[in-house]
TrEMBL record:
HAMAP family in UniProt: RadA_bact
UniProt remark on domains: The middle region has homology to RecA with ATPase motifs including the RadA KNRFG motif, while the C-terminus is homologous to Lon protease.
Chain segments carrying region Disordered: 455-476
Protein name, UniProt field: DNA repair protein RadA
Pfam families xrefs: AAA_25 (PF13481), ChlI (PF13541), Zn_ribbon_LapB (PF18073)
Annotated binding of ATP, by residue: 99-106
Organism: Methylobacterium radiodurans
Alphabetically ordered keywords of this record: ATP-binding, DNA damage, DNA repair, DNA-binding, Hydrolase, Metal-binding, Nucleotide-binding, Stress response, Zinc, Zinc-finger
Amino acid sequence: MAKLQQTFVCQSCGAVYNRWRGRCEACNGWNTIVEETPGGGVQAGPAATRPSRARGRVFPLEGLTGEAKQAPRIPSGIAELDRVTGGGFVRGSVILLGGDPGIGKSTLLMQASAAMAGTGQRVAYISGEEAVGQVRLRAERLGLADRPVELAAETNVEDIVETLSQGRPPALAIIDSIQTMWTETVDSAPGTVTQVRSSAQSLIRFAKTTGTAVILVGHVTKDGQIAGPRVVEHMVDAVASFEGDQGHHFRILRAVKNRFGPTDEIGVFEMTDGGLAEVPNPSALFLAGRDHQAAGTAVFAGMEGTRPLLVEIQALVAPSALGMPRRAVVGWDPNRLSMVLAVLEAHGGIRLSGHDVYLNVAGGLRISEPAADLAVAAALVSSLSGAALPAETVYFGEIGLSGAIRPVAQASARLKEAQKLGFAKALMPQGRETADRALATESLRHIADMVAGIAANGPKRGGRGRNHNPRYEEAD
């Protein structure tokens, strides 16, 4: 009898080795490599259950009708969720949903399944972490106990697929979570890389053959990444992240990957006593409680996909007693902040090398577009000079390394959102858009123009404002 070859698999990234190692060379993780049964994996699952190789069918591309070209979608009944998915769930698609523990993933999926079941669709909620009674208690707390949602507490993939195949195929099947599932074709413990990969493949095959939309709930690591092998994210059709902070009452659903829709849309929810409530106007939520008279705050008119969003940028510039001043950023790219600071010092005449800089996006929102450069620069200069920016003004624009302010896309949508919330003026780069603007705009060419405008409204020489700084007067 031939000796079986040992296989060692990293439980963090899925790298395979022929012997045990203390550190994985692929992800640099320590003590993540464990021994697994040879032959178990993606190739072993289908081959073990298929007695012979059957011929596949070939379909001509020119035979598709106009209706078949567009994948039919199933509305979830939650507008913010449909916005992120691209208009609803595509039949036969598989979505991987990740998020921190306690963020509200199960609550969101329970509300979505109840809304779809209320329209006559067959919906199944499979929980591998909770009993049926516990899931029913959550539904009663949310006021959804009367909805015809099929509940089950099972972790065996073969039993789940066999049960869902009986009768009419469900329109939506929720698996909570994929890390608890196991398949009989793999001889390893649930939660391992091989089990997660094989279980996900079986559920994906079921979705593609029956047209059922499947949502797989995934755990996340300490770094915020979805746990398990990266190959699962490549296998599914969409990857969504449910973000939020325990200190804030709102949650953000963001698409990381989507084969059937955009990846730059977000859905905003508010956590209430009755579950997750949709937020149709997130700008008003993020600007609530804003201090209009405080120096170091600027309102940024941003875009998240097709949705304009106004958020408050907060900056604090304080003299540092350290040899290397601190740079702390929350909600923005730290490298982008370093670039803006360098441009302000080189082309704006602002000396920031001896100051600690703290930057925060109010409300816990994370932004990444370069259009926030101008708002960040305005908040920094305002904090350094002690001059409060006008409360009715919004800022957006990209700053180049030469100090020039470059145009950004969708300026008209940003201006309309600012006007809707009562803002009267916008500082923006010179663009080519000629649409009628309902609010006053000031076009800026160079970062020095913005610095001069803030300095003109700041404390006079010899004055002592709240954030008076003599170094700013030297650069004035």
